[in-house]
Amino acid sequence: MAAEAILGAFMQTLFQKLSEIALDQFRSYRGIHGKLDNLSGILSELKNFLDDAEAKQLTDASVRGWLAKLKDIAYDIDDLLDRYSAKSMHLRLRTQARVSSPTYFFRRNLYQYKLKQKISSIMERLDKIAKDRATIGLQSLGEMSRQETSERPQSSSLVDDSTVFGRDRDKEEMVRLLLSDSRHSSCNVCVIPVVGMGGLGKTTLMQMVYHDDRVKEHFQLRIWVYVSESFDERKLTQETLEAAAYDQSIASTNMNMLQEILYRVLHGKRFLLVLDDVWNEDRDKWLSYRAALLSGGLGSKIVVTSRNEDVGRIMGGIEPYKLQKLSDDDSWSVFKSHAFRDGDCSTYPQLELIGREIVKKLKGLPLASKALGSLLFCKTDEEDWKDILRNDIWELPAEKNNILPALRLSYNHLPPHLKQCFVFCSVYPKDYIFRREKLVKIWLALGFIRQSSRRRLEDTGNSYFSELLSRSFFQPYQDNYVMHDAMHDLAKFISMEDCHQFEHNRMHDNAYKIRHLSFRCTDTKCMQFGPLYGYTKLRTLVIMHGYKSKMSQLPDGVFVKLQYLRVLDMHGSGLKELPESIGNLKQIRFLDLTSTEIKTLPISIVKLYNLQILKMIDCNSLRDVPQGITKLTNMRYFEASTRLLTRIPGIGNLICLQELEEFVVQKGLGHKITELHDMDQLHGQLSIRGLNNVADRQEALCANLKAKEHLRTLHLIWDEDSKVNHLEQQEDILEGLQPHLDLKELMIKGFPGLTIPSWLASSSLPNLQTIHICNCRSRVLPPLGQLPFLRNLDIAGATEVTQLGHEFTGSGNLKCFPVLEELLLEDLPNLRKWNFDVAERLFSKIN
């Protein structure tokens, strides 16, 4: 049902890829560059009709069919570009040494011919789609706004308290916040956001609070305004006046005049204003409407109910009050009050048992309890109740199911790039525990994250997750996240023919259309891979294992059939061997082999030129990887044990790598510190061990640490058991290892030289916050007291240091250690002198 929104985001990514590939890889290919431009032009034109298709697809089967065909073509174009991009890279690597060979030109010409044929075939399909568009009457809406459709009835301040359960504590807390005299900054008016997912009862809570006798007595004026999707400042000002019982007729529609009247009505009065169901994220609109509200008296409160935490922050509110789900007992009370006459179920004990099981599925969502209870009102047939227990909430009769529109509204307000990220999550089962970092990497691998010139993909992906979290599509769970069952049902309902969970050997009716699949294995019987072969267009395959399941190997044909995979997750399986056919997955970006029992990787893995994320943590049986693995230059994450990574020669070829926890310097070719020269994308922490194996200062400079602007923590470590001669040379080496000025934490351990480097000063590393100097032989400590942001300082094993004086704190009138919070001095056996004024200046700064 949301194919158009997901398709819009997908096509935007496709345009970018078409542009990049046309300009880069196919510039010299005669005829192909122009064809790709034509392809992009037709897609761009068709994209303008997606909004109209969205409005018509619910009632017009021909529009739904048109969207499905367009989506298939878009996927095929993406597959074509990926496949031939990988093929192009493979040809270049194989023929670098013999570019002019006849074989090379033959393969290149054959490659171009096949590519032209496929593009021409796709162009024919696109032309037909374009003609069909006119036949079914789709129009380009351009910038025109679609007529608003109300998906939720307007709220009022009235509520039937007899059907509200489990909110007494929330009500008392809200009353406390409203009656408190605390002021928000310098303003008389305080904004209190109440946030939570749709159907959780935010409006109901505020209805109870609004009519509480204590609240009525405290506020001189109470106003209730239902806002919903349209935040029209003029209209809201007028409605606020009307709700404030302004008894004079308002003929004017002039915003300035309306604001002035509202200003006078509220002036000096302590008022309570409830703005129910706010979606506005435009701060300027809020400021325009708020101008008149600021005239209120001290203690005035504005309560904003919203599904989005950011809405409250935009309105300058205090920390949002996050409404939690109901307990099962309270949910049952809501359910039975609507399912049984007078809420009395005593004469139907069997229905009560079924009803309590239904309530458990609803995970504390009062709207769902109310809806299902109402649906079963006065029905006494057990089969009717069991039908509800077996079905998802979306399979209920539409005219009696207000859960769908309530949550669908949240989805409709998502931008397209977030819609496809959310809908993808339906591939996982209910109650699945999402790990944020992994999910973002999967989104990245699937091309869901939009490229930005100012931010790296991972940071953009993290902002996507944060936005979905703030809008209640995810909920925190311990250190990870879960999705409420109703939200999961919504994603499943919307995804339709894109995502599927393969269970009980039941294949989807349109398996060839499914793009993302989870394959659950709960016992040894699920190891029949035959049905999988029907899912020929899969981009994602997640093999999920129960504790009883065993899977030592995969059939060789599985990766011949599923050649479009971009994400393959086999985390936690008992897999002992990967078939050679893994090399067929030319488009794969994400491969998770974490906690498997694999002993070796097939040589064909070095053909996976598009691979970006390879996860092999806790692969304790794995002893080695193929030598050519460093040809995979698109790799962004290579997650494996340090023992394994240090054995890979030439790791410096992986110039896109974002993380490298540890690099061990060795004297052999491919293991020298010069491997770090081009790895400027490294983020986070890097430990460099074995610095005693660096030959000289020039070699140290070749590590190019000064250019690694994304590193925040750097550990420089010499092997303590190695004998080092030429101490002056070691001092030169450390001088050559100067980090980037944005470094936040530095460790120097085991340094055998007598002089700490000149760059360890405020002018070279002004942003340092933490320093560890361990087991170093330096006699004099550098002027660390001049580092302006140094908070933590740890000096241990400085056996040659004899005094702490101005050389340590810095001289002159500059403040020493201006923000130091923690100082640890340990194992300084030869420390004899500590200048009194230095000690006094130092300890006065430590908390």
Automatic annotation (TrEMBL):
Domain NB-ARC: residue ranges: 186-342
Domain Disease resistance protein winged helix: 427-491
Domain Disease resistance N-terminal per the UniProt entry, residue ranges: 10-95
Superkingdom of the organism of origin: Eukaryota
Domain (R13L1/DRL21-like LRR repeat region): residue spans on this chain: 673-796
Residue span of region Disordered: 140-163
GO biological process, one term: defense response to bacterium
SUPFAM superfamilies the record matches: L domain-like (SSF52058), P-loop containing nucleoside triphosphate hydrolases (SSF52540)
GO molecular function: ADP binding; ATP binding
One Pfam family here: Rx_N
Family: Belongs to the disease resistance NB-LRR family.
PANTHER family linked to this entry: DISEASE RESISTANCE PROTEIN RGA3 (PTHR36766:SF40), PLANT BROAD-SPECTRUM MILDEW RESISTANCE PROTEIN RPW8 (PTHR36766)
Protein name stated in the entry: Uncharacterized protein
Phylogenetic placement of the source organism: Eukaryota, Viridiplantae, Streptophyta, Embryophyta, Tracheophyta
